[in-house]
Amino acid sequence: MLTPAVLFPVMLVEGPVATLVAGSLVGAGALGWWPVWLAATAADLIADSLLFLLGRYGTGRRTERLLGRLGLTAARWQELRTAVRSQLPRVVIGAKLVDVGAVPAFLATGMAGVPYRRFLAWNAPLTAARAAVLTGLGALLGGQLADRVVAQPWLAVVAGLALGLALLAVHTVIARITRRTAAHR
Fold this sequence. Notes:
Elements: H1 4-13, H2 15-27, H3 33-57, H4 61-69, H5 74-86, H6 88-97, H7 102-111, H8 116-151, H9 154-184
Helix pairs in contact: 1-2, 1-3, 2-3, 2-8, 3-7, 3-8, 6-7, 6-8
């Protein structure tokens, strides 16, 4: 039987897509909204916290050498720390809006020495809201497709592939824009 607990590991790895899929199952009547929302929120908070903690405690000589190779000199490092600390709300909101930005944003937040409670105070409500929106969008999609899928099961496969390809395209475009923006700086 499919439960949000089964989807939880997938939500840890690829939260937005898994949350949309789980939401579509909510719309089709196969899962409850609250358990899916709770699983999506918990998975996202755990993944974000792991990135934060990796940034906080993943420092060492190898990390310093890698950051030096990437051009993060001592002066730039101090600028980054100051910027992340002073603009934490923007960092977290940006990471939630552009999922690919979460990895560097939350690693930098941890490395900047932002207190975990402050990070969580901004991250938790935004994560809960994002999980609600994605679950709701999935439920709308699932509700509209449920009747058609019962009559024509191949539509579920086509819809899943189309959604996956659309999200992959959006992810690719955002990643390219991010790289171009970083290269121009």
